[in-house]
């Protein structure tokens, strides 16, 4: 029989690096090598005409939290959500297993961030970086934060 795990984690709003309030939740189901995920952000976190934001799954490496882009949130009946599936043994071909991830990171315009930590711990949002274009080699580099070659686009730059 295939291994099956289900997990629910709460998304919390972080304002200026401080954990503030519950803002939604994440559902994760892993069955064998398939991982299905649903991310739901409350309607009061979104105003009309605003960009919905991007979703990342993150892992810890060298005292940094590295985010792997999953996609864009979508506005569904006033709730921001993202749903998708991936290989649990190789998340988006980055060589990271789902079991090695630490949680979900949602970035919105205006420095608004929402985080669901699998262990429900408070995190330091200043330690978050995007998965670099150069891959694991760049993650080990001490100049990662300053390297312009490693950013996705202007929306993702800090």
Explained architecture:
The protein is mostly beta strands. It contains 1 helix and 10 strands, in the order ββββββββββα. The protein has a 10-stranded mixed sheet, with no helix packed on it. The radius of gyration is 15 Å and the shape is globular. The termini are far apart.
What are the main properties of this structure?
1 helix; 158 residues; 3% helix; disordered C terminus; mainly beta
Provide a concise account of the structure shown.
The chain has 158 residues and is an all-beta fold.
- Secondary-structure-based class equals mainly beta
First-to-last CA distance? 45 Å
- Largest sheet, spatial ordering of strands: 6-7-3-2-1-9-8-4-5-10
The profile of the biggest β sheet is: 10 strands, mixed
Order of SSEs: EEEEEEEEEEH
| Beta-strand share of residues | over 45%
What is the alpha-carbon Rg in Å?
15 Å
Number of DSSP-assigned strands = 10
The chain-level mean pLDDT equals: 83
Q: How many DSSP H or I helices?
A: 1
What is the 3D shape? Answer: globular
Helix content: under 10%
Uncertain segments are: 153-158
